[in-house]
Every structure is written in C-alpha cells, then in structure tokens.
Design brief:
Elements lengths: L1 H17 L6 H14 L3 E2 L16 E5 L2 E3 L14 E10 L2 E10 L5 H19 L7 H14 L3 E2 L5 E3 L6 E5 L20 E4 L2 E3 L5 E3 L6 E3 L5 E3 L2 E4 L6 E2 L4
Antiparallel strand pairs: 1-4, 2-4, 3-12, 4-5, 6-10, 7-8, 7-9, 9-14, 10-13, 11-12, 14-15
Helix pairs in contact: 1-2, 3-4
Length: 246
C-alpha cells in the first residue's frame, strides 16, 4: 500500500505542476494515466462500476468549481483563471489500492475560495491527527466536522471516506458528519494496521447535492463552490502514517 500510495502522490504532484489556465481536464487525465501505468500499476477509477453499470471512463476525477466529486475529464473542459479543480486519483499496485485527492487553484482566486481550500485541507489534517490506536471512529468524524463548522463552512453529508486495502471501498464507511443519535455509524475502535481513506468534502453554501445527467458528476445544489482533499493513511502504534504523500 505504501507503493500504491507513492504512485498516487506522484500523480498529484504532476497535477499541481500542470493545472494551469488553458489546460483541459482530458490532458490532465492522460498524464495521470501515463504515470500510473509507467509504474506497472492500474488506474483504480477507470472502469469502476456505478450501481453495477455505467463504468467510470477515466483515470482521474476532475471536478471544477461547484462540482464536488466524480467529474469526468473532457477535452472541452478547459481550465480558466479563477477556477478551482478537485483532482481525485486511485491506483492499484500488486493488488493493493491507494486513493487521494487535492483541490487546486487556477491562477488567482477570491479570498473566500482560498479560505475554503485552507479549511478543507485543515479538516483533513485534523481528522488524520485523531487516526491513532486507542481512539474510535467518532473521534475522526467529530474532528473533521468541528474544524469545518467552526470556520463557517459545511461538510457534505451524502459522501464519505472509507476503509481501503485490497478493494477501493471497504468497511468502515467514514462520514464527515456525525449526525443525530440513532443515525450514526458504528463507533469502530481504531487499531494498528488499519488503512483508511479520509476525505472531507466542504462547501461554501448548503450541503445538499445533485448528480448531473452523466450519472457521475456530483454538484452542489445551490451552485456554490466545493473543495475536496483526501489521503490514504495507516494507523500505527504511534503517529498515523500518510501513505499518499511523497
């Protein structure tokens, strides 16, 4: 999983360098796929099924502005000054998965947008800090939700992080919102050796979403911007280990 994570991290480093005004999301996808396959790995997202059908057609998810997750790369989607783009990438190496995401600014953005990104990444790190043996799943969820809401933003309630290993999505599901009693996830103990993907998705407006006609792209219902950061991590006897960081 460390190897898979390093491949994912290398892709995201390349995306940081490449994401500029005038670049298409299809160009980003082509470079990502080349890096993954060069390392004898498999793009984890390409061909991934949705509800048993409608396979995802690309190696990255590229979601611009009000698009939250699962945006499909397209040669006609050209990045513009002032945009933000969430790039989510997964790789399979020797049967194990890595999964991570970053939201990038394209040129100069307004102050609220910059703060949205800072808060979302900060929430991810707050969640990771709680991912240690002896804690429980709710410690992670509470840390993410509290960090976001203190800053005046909202976390998505319909999409979540997840366990990861020999499959992309394993137990436990890890929401970013704890919810009322009776609707909360099982409060699993966190133990050394667990590998999980934490991924706060944060919106500048209301948390409700809708899915576009392509069956994949999730957008904010009110058209406000969204940010998304993700790491695959391993829980250890000491500090959590971020597997998707170079």
């Amino acid at each position: 999983m460390r190897q898979a994570g390093r491949i994912v991290a290398e892709v995201l480093a390349a995306m940081r360098e490449m994401a500029r005004p005038g670049v298409s999301t299809a160009e980003l996808n082509a470079v990502a796929e080349e890096i993954i396959t060069r390392h004898n790995a498999i793009p984890a997202f390409k061909g991934y099924p949705h509800n048993g059908k409608n396979e995802f057609p690309a190696s990255i998810c590229a979601s611009i502005n009000e698009e939250i997750v699962h945006g499909i790369p397209n040669p006609r989607r050209i990045l513009k000054e002032g945009d933000i783009i969430s790039i989510d990438v997964g790789a399979i190496h020797k049967g194990f998965y890595g999964d991570a995401a970053v939201t990038l600014t394209i040129g100069e953005v307004d102050e609220e947008t910059r703060r949205l990104l800072e808060v979302t990444e900060g929430a991810l790190m707050a969640g990771i800090a709680q991912a240690r043996q002896g804690n429980r799943l709710w410690n992670i969820i509470r840390a993410i939700q509290a960090y976001v809401e203190r800053a005046g933003f909202n976390v998505l309630r319909e999409y979540q992080g997840h366990g990861i290993g020999r499959k992309m999505h394993e137990e436990p599901g890890i929401p970013n919102f704890l919810g009322p009693r009776g609707q909360r996830p099982k409060n699993y103990p966190l133990v050394s050796g667990m590998t999980i993907a934490l991924e706060p998705m944060v919106v500048a407006g209301d948390w409700h979403t809708k899915v576009l006609g392509d069956g994949w792209t999730v957008v904010t219902a009110d058209g406000k911007r969204s940010a998304h950061f993700e790491h695959t991590i391993a829980i250890t006897n000491g500090e959590p280990e971020i597997l998707t960081r170079l």
